Amino acid sequence: MTATGQDVVSDEIAHEQAHVDRVYAELAKAAERARMVHAEGMARGQTDRRGTGDPREEELTGLFERDALVYTASKRQAALEGQHEGLVFGRLDLDHGDGPVGSGGPEHREVRYIGRLGVRDDDYEPLVIDWRAPAAAPFYRATPADPHRVIRRRVLRSRGEKVVGVEDDLMVPEPPDDIVVVGDGALMAALTRSRGRQMRDIVATIQRHQDEAIRAPARGVTEITGGPGTGKTVVALHRAAYLLYADRRRYESGGVLVVGPSAAYTAYIERVLPSLGEDTVTLRSVGDVVDGLTAGRLDSPEAARVKGSLRMRTVLGRLVREPAPDAPDLLRVFVAGHAIRLDARALAEVRHRVLRHHQRNTSWEAALRALAEAAWPQVRQGEREDFIDKFVDSSDVEAFARQWWRPLDPREVLLWLADEETALRVATGVLSEDEARLLAASVQEAERTGTWSVADAALVDDLASRLGPVTELPAEERGFYEIDELDDASQYAGVAALRSTGAGAIGDGTSYERIPANPRERLLAGRIEPAEEYAHILVDEAQDLSPMQWRMLGRRGRWASWTVVGDLAQSSWPDLEEAARARDEAFGSAPRRTFHMDTNYRNAREVFTYAAELIARHVPDADIPNAVRDTGVDVIDRAVDPDAVVAEAEAAVEHLAGEVEGSIAVIAPERWRPALAGLEGAAGGRALVIDPLSTKGLEYDATVVVDPDGIVRESPGGPRTLYVVLTRAAHRMAVLHVR
To answer: For the segment 634-658, what is each residue's pLDDT rounded down to a tens digit?
Structure first.
């Protein structure tokens, strides 16, 4: 029977609450056991010896046991303490009888509760099954056509430890008399909820086609495609959590890297994986992939197009063969009584000879020997090897080489392109003169602002792979009286710019690192680390990656499996064919499988119809999903005068605040954002002002889209970027065209 009375619903909630209370009681006991293990671990390895000397073998064993116990207990404590929000979210009623599903009596039934974490009672009987376990698969795979022996699938809605609602999906034509069915279906209930500033997981409402992508084989490349709002991102994140569960040894030790389009995106999704029981994933925006470099500034579309092109490989290959701007161009020394002179041309020949077979930063000895071999024809007396040994050991030669062949930071080398003459020289025959000047101007912008652009990160990574790691040169012999002088404090910002780092200490013991005030020093602060390789790489908004960015990721995924999420109709990278070649090179010969999502769960039908009409005009073959939810409220679409833009946007936010309960985004091109900044925090803190590209991967209850034509003009993807903007609203949208 179908339950409609409030009393029946309350009884069902109370019944589920009783089980949830039992689960949390067991969780509390498990947390206490973890604390006891932690305390026991801390007690291991302690000794009452007061003397000094090497530790005894039993003490070393105790220290090892302590570290192992404390690590394991701390990890378990963190997992248990992080699972109090909606720990139990699902229930399955299964029929294991021999007949049709639902025909067996209660003696053939099994109840399984599904949750974010597996919990057992004192008898080791499961109270909750981890959502990633095979036994939980029917919760996602069951359909009326293929019920997987499931009679009823129930979703529990909770606030903290309190069950506040239940929604059922029936998998048989008629339920048995003793099974109550509540509500209109869990999925539609979830879709009508308001959005917040962070993404929610969909672990309770995963659909069958989504579950197939989540549990696909780990090896190779899994591509998840589909139009806006189809749940591609959240399915991919659930897949990352599933892989860690299914093969923890491989993926936890090898690492999982999740790459998104922006810092706003990473902030939006950062809670999803921990809520699914995983906190060991590295989450980066595409500008932060290179360890030691943070990049969030966006280049102009023209400059980004040049920097992202594979033509930059040739430009950068030539650049690393350039002499450092401060390198000496003449060597004049006496070695073994012989005057040696190598001019700029001879030094260039030596440099090119060494770099044909070596990386710059790992070839100190090779460079010294190549200099000696270039000098030998000026001597030709005695034994050649004796002369080379004396040349290499010469303190004057070493002093010269320390300037001429010093290690080069890849960021410093990229900054050489700020010199227009250098940019034109290394780009000859590869870029046009206008493109070379544009490249130089974009690097000059980095020097002026002290900030790297997102496109710069891939160039720095390419240069790092060519130069090799920055290593220290062999130590010079120094007199006992030589001391290091303190840095001139005037080159750093004041106390307000100090930031805690955990290295060094001042005053009260707090650790700080000084942030350089000079823009160039800010660009070169810290150290670029070698590319770290991962066992799995998840790339979201993959259609936006430039070829150079694909090469950057490829260096981190030589032996990785991949999950790749994208929709070509939303691409902001103009040359899709070139990007595809770079992507294929990154994947190598790994097997590939594709899962297509064709249902738009995010946008109300009225919102998506408006957006779909736009993209159909510009991209006729765009992947248009089917929106499944109506609100009965059309998009507000009006033209406004330039001097009324702010007032109209403010009125739209005020109107939408009365229509929706969650977040409201005001999305505008650069021209209007300063004037609209006052709307940040309006509507009781629910409104924010954001640029079009930063909305990638995000969603809001409502949006106010200001000057769509301006968005097209300033965006690298043109109408494709506007399509992204128009598909961010879940429930309501207002579009203000500027006359």
So the answer is: 999 999 999 999 999 999 999 999 9
